[in-house]
């Protein structure tokens, strides 16, 4: 019988993540709010954690039950056979999200779930698991919504957007999962040149390079949540990792470029490229925007200029956006450019007519992903 899973994703990327999960072999894929429900077996769970570029976490659904108050929550948790997922020699933690009218504090909800689990353990084993909020063997996720409680095991551990290759970041880094989504939305393939003239610590070029070389995004992580579960299949996991390495490409047909006026963040980008073993495939340079030139006659350009939310003063950024628009228009004929903008007034300063736009959230900032065909 297939297991029920749920991949959490950034708002607005549900349909795109559903496509990715389908490509990875997921069944009964259904996009929802900030996530995608799907079905599959244990190999698929491992495969999705290793290969999916867009989700934050992959949750294994255990149960869902009516839950209006603390007593219903306690009783519902107690009905689950926790000995199958968690014995007293394993540590655990509980993450709680959502609320009901009577359960509106996540800390209390998590405490009630913890109490129900350890009380069951004491009854069965005479002892209980210890709590480890940082690196638990088993991380339990409960979500309250419309007087129901959904109970999951978090198979990912830390968020999947933390690939493990990027200890060095700029002041306002783009999440790796969002960068991967932007690249997918752009339609870029490895037979096209790729450039980010405002690359910061290099997330967009790095994610493009990983996609182009068919390197699994989970390759550089220290571990996943499912690796400390009681039913972890080490031989299966090893075989999937071996197969992933065998699928990697050894070259890219077209160049990938990243530049930024800040030499220090370019040093960070180069360090990140070394950490994921792609330093030989990306050309990072410290270049002021006004000096940027296209490396080829055509290609895909994606950039994430400051919006004035975390970096830059909106009043001073108007000139910068106008300069960006002029450079795209004058120097990048034959290219397709994409700009992620969280400031409508600034995006209008680019002075080019976008042929397509998509609403995307960059964290808590509502953005537009603007496409420009440059002739």
TrEMBL record:
Keywords: Methyltransferase, RNA-binding, Transferase
GO molecular function: RNA binding; rRNA (guanine-N2-)-methyltransferase activity; rRNA (guanine-N7-)-methyltransferase activity
Lineage: superkingdom: Bacteria
Matching SMART domains: THUMP
THUMP domain sequence ranges: 44-155
Gene3D superfamilies in the record: 3.30.2130.30, Vaccinia Virus protein VP39
Protein name from the UniProt record: RNA methylase, putative
Organism: Acaryochloris marina (strain MBIC 11017)
């Amino acid at each position: 019988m297939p297991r029920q899973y749920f991949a959490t994703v950034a708002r607005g990327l549900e349909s795109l993540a559903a496509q990715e999960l389908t490509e990875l072999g997921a069944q009964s894929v259904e996009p929802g709010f900030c996530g995608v429900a799907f079905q599959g077996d244990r190999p698929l769970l491992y495969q999705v954690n290793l290969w999916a570029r867009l989700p934050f976490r992959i949750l294994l659904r255990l149960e869902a039950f009516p839950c209006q108050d603390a007593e219903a929550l306690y009783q519902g948790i107690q009905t689950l056979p926790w000995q199958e997922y968690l014995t007293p020699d394993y540590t655990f933690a509980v993450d709680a999200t959502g609320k009901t009218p009577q359960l509106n504090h996540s800390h209390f909800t998590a405490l009630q779930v913890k109490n129900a689990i350890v009380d069951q353990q004491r009854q069965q084993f005479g002892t209980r698991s210890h709590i480890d909020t940082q690196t638990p063997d088993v991380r339990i996720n409960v979500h309250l919504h419309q007087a129901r409680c959904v109970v999951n095991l978090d198979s990912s551990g830390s968020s999947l957007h933390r690939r493990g290759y990027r200890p060095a970041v700029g002041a306002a880094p783009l999440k790796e999962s969002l960068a991967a989504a932007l690249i997918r939305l752009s339609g870029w393939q490895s037979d096209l040149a790729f450039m980010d003239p405002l690359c910061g610590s290099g997330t967009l070029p790095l994610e493009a390079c990983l996609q182009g070389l068919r390197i699994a995004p989970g390759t550089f992580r220290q571990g996943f949540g499912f690796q400390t579960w009681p039913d972890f299949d080490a031989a299966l996991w090893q075989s999937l990792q071996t197969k992933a390495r065998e699928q990697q490409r050894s070259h890219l047909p077209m160049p990938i470029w990243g530049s930024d006026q800040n030499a220090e963040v370019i040093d960070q980008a180069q360090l990140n490229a070394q950490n994921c073993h792609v330093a030989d495939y990306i050309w990072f340079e410290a270049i002021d925007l006004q000096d940027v030139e296209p490396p080829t006659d055509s290609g895909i350009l994606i950039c994430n200029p400051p919006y004035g939310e975390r970096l830059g003063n909106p009043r001073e950024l108007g000139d910068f956006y106008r300069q960006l628009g002029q450079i795209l228009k004058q120097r990048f004929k034959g290219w397709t450019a994409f700009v992620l903008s969280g400031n409508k007034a600034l995006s209008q300063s680019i002075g080019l007519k976008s042929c397509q736009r998509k609403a995307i959230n960059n964290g808590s900032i509502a953005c537009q992903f603007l496409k420009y065909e440059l002739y």
